[in-house]
Amino acid sequence: MITVEDARALLFDLVGPLPTEEVPLAQSAGRVLSRDVTATRDQPPFAASSMDGYAVKSDEVELHAMFKVVGESAAGRRFEGAVGPGQAVRIYTGAPVPDGADFVLIQEDTDRRGDLLTITDTPGAKTNIRPAGVDFKAGTSISAPRSIRAEDVALMAAMNIPRVPVSRKPVIALISTGDELVMPGEEPGPDQIIASNTFGLKAMLEGLGAVVRVLPIARDTVSSLETAFGLAQGADLVVTIGGASVGDYDLVSDVSQGLGMKQSFYKIRMRPGKPLMAGRIGNAAMVGLPGNPVSAMVCGYLFLAPMVRRMLGLEQVLPPFRTARLSGPLPENGPREHYMRAVVTDAGIEACADQDSSLLSVLAQSNALLVRAPHDPARDIGEMVEYLPI
Amino acid sequence: MITVEDARALLFDLVGPLPTEEVPLAQSAGRVLSRDVTATRDQPPFAASSMDGYAVKSDEVELHAMFKVVGESAAGRRFEGAVGPGQAVRIYTGAPVPDGADFVLIQEDTDRRGDLLTITDTPGAKTNIRPAGVDFKAGTSISAPRSIRAEDVALMAAMNIPRVPVSRKPVIALISTGDELVMPGEEPGPDQIIASNTFGLKAMLEGLGAVVRVLPIARDTVSSLETAFGLAQGADLVVTIGGASVGDYDLVSDVSQGLGMKQSFYKIRMRPGKPLMAGRIGNAAMVGLPGNPVSAMVCGYLFLAPMVRRMLGLEQVLPPFRTARLSGPLPENGPREHYMRAVVTDAGIEACADQDSSLLSVLAQSNALLVRAPHDPARDIGEMVEYLPI
Description:
The structure is a homodimer.
Chain A: H1 4-14, E1 20-24, E2 32-33, E3 37-38, E4 48-49, E5 53-56, E6 66-73, E7 87-91, E8 103-106, E9 110-113, E10 116-119, E11 129-130, E12 141-142, E13 146-147, H2 150-158, E14 163-167, E15 171-176, E16 181-182, E17 193-194, H3 197-207, E18 211-214, H4 222-231, E19 237-241, H5 251-258, E20 262-266, E21 270-271, E22 277-281, E23 284-289, H6 293-311, E24 322-325, E25 337-345, E26 348-351, H7 360-365, E27 368-372, E28 384-389
Parallel strand pairs in A: 6-7, 15-18, 15-19, 16-17, 19-23, 21-25
Antiparallel strand pairs in A: 1-14, 2-13, 3-12, 4-11, 5-7, 5-8, 6-10, 9-10, 20-22, 22-23, 24-28, 25-26, 25-27, 27-28
EC number (chains A, B): 2.10.1.1
Cofactor (chains A, B): Mg(2+)
InterPro entries (chains A, B): MoaB/Mog-like_dom_sf (IPR036425), MoaB/Mog_dom (IPR001453), MoeA-like (IPR038987), MoeA_C_domain_IV (IPR005111), MoeA_C_domain_IV_sf (IPR036688), MoeA_linker/N (IPR005110), MoeA_linker/N_sf (IPR036135)
């Protein structure tokens, strides 16, 4: 058995950044920018007024000064002439400042009668002009890699980047195994339960930016599992759930090794989720998750999510652990790392009462995995602990 | 001019929760559960072993006790008989515990030769049996409203809920206005800029769970804007961007009122984003956002996001403000509420140097809006301030 940290290092060896594809700007939010993108023009492309008012020469600005209004500059329709001495041009927010002008009087500081403009309030020192290129200049880049937020989309639009280079989404095939499983919507027999792991993991992995293919349930036979592996071809990552010990042998490991899987490791010194297996099969990485629903989801957060982030080319791939103050005591931990279901609030973090790895109801009520090191001593209220938000 | 808080209250009067629709379980993540859903069976549906081992009678469990193995209970295939005195049944994790047995010996505590089983290590007090219904019982509900997480999807799968009642997604039509605008990918003229607001807002609003229709850019004419409003029909919310003051009149307000818009308010005492207008037009709510890119995005976070959450039927609709310690000083604030672009890290929060509302590059570098009350005095490093994560 190896540690969680060693397992993650080995998992990172199984996957690498995926190639770039281009998507329309409107589809880029939430994707990972995979190459730097660069503005091809200045923004604003011209000196622009930041207010509604009048463009004049700054050395003529003083209380009671008078100007003749000679034209108008609107957004998209600049004043084509130049502002001469004693002249003013009506200007609107965002419009190009005309040649000859270097100051915009705010309209509230003026009085206009016909073409005659008078300064009626002392203008401030601000010119109310945004210089050309003050937001960004031609050649300004947005650096990859980067998870694209709404703000980045707006900025790329302003930079006139209609197509965006992003990492291809990893394709993940999910195979649930077990004679006892039926799909949601089916009528289960008395010995059967509903397949829940693939649905939970699909939601988790799609939220991280993967494309998920849910394959038919594999039964606890060699031929059924071989059929499922056949259907998984083309995926970047094949994830099996359950089947780690069936009868007296390890079905998933044996069948996948029969299909050429090169095993990287087997079993991790952790709770929940000890029987976790990984390797490469064909062109894909492969991870065998434990079948207990909570174990499968926890292993998803700890191992699959970092693999997805690595395939997406992100720099921050490790789970984003944080610290919080205990609001309930903790018993001594055993010999394995323990990821306890917990609830974190402004008042602190408290582990859920029942840590059995079959309890999806407890997982759904929790919003954190509280991390315990092997043999971590009992902890009191007020001590700081590490956790992973979920 | 009204306050941000008053504006939000008026905006909430313009929209209400949308009707329920059913989606397949696999499409439910990220949606808002709109009606309680209820399990129709117990989980597990039978007393189940939590370990691989042997099912026996607990009153026969003691060191060196011997049993005859009479059968096997696997997941999906229970042992049909009953366990009698001196008998044991081979059992696997998740399998039904046979009648007559109330204890599962862990296989590591036993030695088996043929059909003869001997207890070789003193078993612990735990029975290693999960009672029927320990995760949830038939009739257990998940309460609406609730943003559906991956964990909820897994739980609903286990509850055998194949179709999920969720709030219909709000449909939002976005209309950019301005003679100066061209779409990304076009070749802008010297006086033109690229439409960025609709792209940024589309990404933001889709991330919140809305369906966004980006309409053709409306020019600064009555007929062009009327055409755009015509295309917006069927939306739950129509959002215009810019056009608040064009020439010497308010184009969007005038045209929309000409089309029957009932105005709720106009102008908010805030920075950035003062010219914000709202009302109802036909069957839709309508919001007129300012045209400066940063103002439009900030108003999106402060006003559109809460409206979307209200339409989705969520209980927590207000922006999720937090507090942080200042890591840079702040100057005195003016008479309007100010939402400063800022960067929050573990070290604290610091406002960006340039707060001009045209700077998308600054917005893209920030991850928070630092809230300043009207006339808030200058603040020192170390003081606590309120912010909205973005």
